[in-house]
Amino acid sequence: MSTMHPLYVSLSFGMALLYGWYLKGWRSVCRGLGYGLAVIAIVAAANAFFNGLGLTVLFHVGDHPITAEALCYGLCAGGMLVSVIQWFSCYQEVMTSDKFLSLFGRLAPTTSMMVSMIFRYIPDTIRKAREIQTAQKAMLGNESPGKKQELSQGIRMASILMSWSMESSIETADSMRSRGYGETKRSHYTKQKINRYDVILLCVVGLLIAVNGYWIFARANQFAFYPWMEGVSIPWWIGTLYAILLGIPLLLEGREQLCWLPSRL
Fold it and tell me: For 13-31, what is the mean pLDDT?
């Protein structure tokens, strides 16, 4: 999110696809990639149509010039947006509520509990809405509802979801109170301690973040799209370090697969 340099955007987009492919499979990634490419195309087309800056005119739409600089800016902006969405989708697959509470339960117990509950209620609400929609379709059969009926169904669904959410919140609060939440220091299901491997990995990640952060804010952000594209070129070894930083989650998740790969060949 800190730069729209084409190299950084491309590497982030590619590594997010690889990590998502490992976590969710190629079908889910291809389905999300279709939506992502559509978003990139819409952002690029909108920026090229409404922004006439740039000296390299490709063609005209009426009296409005479509420039290569505006098109490239839109592609990079859309690619950055889709990459962030892809990384957050990977985060959602990896970071469970129990892991979140293990990390921040002692520092901010109330806030971490609230965020964890929000993350749990969002998919539960979506799942409940689909169940309600399926039940409404079953009651109607093959009858195609009109606009008024669709509006009535939407209002009824919202009312049911609000009632269900309030009831579920009351049940959750009663359950937490009966289990002694807030009375004593919170315990954990699993005891996780930081070992020497974790310290080394944190140092490596911190070093990679520092190096890439310097190049992003001091050099990469000097890349200009208007009035023509110019900027400092990023050395290959900086791109390699950035790819390594983005690939660390994939290496951590896939190290078991890599260890067993020779025996499967």
Answer: 89
Each residue of 74-120: pLDDT tens digit? 999 999 999 999 998 888 888 877 777 777 767 777 777 777 777 77
Count Cβ neighbours within 10 Å for each residue of 87-113 and write b for 16 or more, e otherwise: bebbeeeeeeeeeebbeebeeeeeebb
Helix intervals (H) in the chain? 6-24, 26-50, 68-94, 97-104, 109-140, 147-178, 196-218, 236-264
Q: Please, are residues 223 and 5 in contact by the beta-carbon 8 Å criterion?
A: yes
Sign of CA dihedral 134, 138, 140, 145: positive
Half-sphere exposure of 261 (CA within 13 A, CB side): 6
> Which is it for strands 57-61 and 64-67: parallel, antiparallel or unpaired?
antiparallel
- Give the separation between CA 204 and CA 122, rounded to whole angstroms: 34
What pTM was computed for the model? 0.71
Nearest to 83 by CA among 163, 173, 18, 177: 18
Contacts of 53 (CB under 8 A, 6+ apart): 67, 69, 70, 226, 227
CA distance 135 to 236: 56
CB-based contacts of 32, cutoff 8 Å, min separation 6: 20, 86, 89
Query: At residue 160, what are phi and psi to the nearest 5 degrees?
Result: -65, -40
What span, in angstroms and rounded, lies between the C-alpha atoms of 153 and 138? 13
Task: Please tell me the predicted confidence (pLDDT) of residue 243.
Answer: 93
Residue range 41-52, pLDDT digits in tens: 999 999 888 887
